[in-house]
Amino acid sequence: MSKPKSDIWETLRTLFYAILIALGIRSFAYEPFHIPSESMLPTLLVGDYLFVSKYAYGYSQYSLFMSPPLFKGRILESVPERGDVAVFRYPGDTSKDYIKRVIGLPGDRVQMRGGELWLNGEKVERRRIADFEERDRFGNVRPRIRQYEEILPGGRSYFVLDSSTTEGDDTPVFTVPAGHYFVMGDNRDNSLDSRFQVAFGGVGYLPAENLIGRAEVRWISLDSSASLFKPWTWFGGFRFERMFTSIR
Predict the structure, then answer these.
(1) Exposed, middle or buried, 22 (CB in 10 Å: 0-12/13-18/19+)?
(2) 37, 161, 175, 219: most buried, per Cβ within 10 A?
(3) Which of 35-44, 146-155, 220-229 has the lowest mean pLDDT?
(4) pLDDT at residue number 180
């Protein structure tokens, strides 16, 4: 017996509402995000899955599904705080999402000297802590990397890595223009960020309009042996200690 037309219509209507609700949550509340690179080590590992708060900074066209150019600028805008871990559209290709830490606000002067961060003419406090080491599920340890706790004015702190001497360790003074932010990766020697111009693969000054949201919490973390879409790999690949943890 064929399904009555009224039942088919009811099913389609329910599916339509479900899609609208999902798109609404994704556009205005929270969006999932996957970490594909090591630029934010040690804070974020490859294989971390995050929830990003869409309402933290207000909304731009990039907040919406498929980013339709319905308006310019931001609606209900809130300024990020220094130290926030933010997801944004890459200025060089707005089809790509990037994630970095907000270091400089409009008007701030940012500089790196000998691998150390200077903000508005003052050196940001940095304390040496135990080396960062990453183990796989078989107990193999990757080469250790020097790790520091960086403490911003106001007391907010987080961990950064400094593995070698690179061109990003010594920079001119960057004065952040109005309507823009200065962002950096926590893995300081392995991050193309605001220290580098877009023409050279960096982020440059990040336009406020490109912000998508603030990274809030890890909900799943999988090592390289596992895939979110292959459930049979989960048991050995889950990093259980990182699940449902807030992002510092």
Answers:
(1) exposed
(2) 161
(3) 220-229
(4) 98
What the block records as the tokens of 4 is 């009555």
Given the residues 39, 60, 63, 191, select the one marked as catalytic: 39
Token pair, residue 2, equals: 């064929």
d(CA 199, CA 92): 8
The helix or strand, by DSSP H or E, that contains position 11, with its residue range, turns out to be helix 5-28
What pLDDT shows up at residue 237?
81
Active-site residue, 100 included: yes
Could you tell me the CA-to-CA distances from 24 to 31, 63, 66, 96, 169 in Å, in that order?
10, 10, 13, 21, 42
Active-site pick, 100, 191, 194, 221: 100
- SS3 of 162-203: CCCCCHHHCCCCEECCCCEEEEECCECCCCCCCCCCHHHCCC
Which DSSP string do the residues of 23-75 spell out, in sequence order?
HHHHHHTEEEEE--SSTTTTTS-TTEEEEEESSTT-B-GGGSTT-----SS-B
How far is residue 102's CA from residue 117's CA, in Å, rounded to a whole number? 13
What is the bridge-based pairing of β-strands 157-161 and 85-89?
unpaired
Q: What is the mean pLDDT of residues 189-205?
A: 97
Q: d(Cα 87, Cα 216) in Å, to the nearest integer?
A: 10
Q: For position 17, what pLDDT does the model report?
A: 47
pTM, whole model, 2 decimals?
Answer: 0.87
Residue of 175, 200, 195, 171 lying closest to 185 (CA atoms): 195
- Cβ contacts of 164 within 8 Å, gap of 6 or more: 189
Tell me the pLDDT band of 24, cut-offs 50, 70 and 90: low
| Mean per-residue pLDDT of the chain | 88
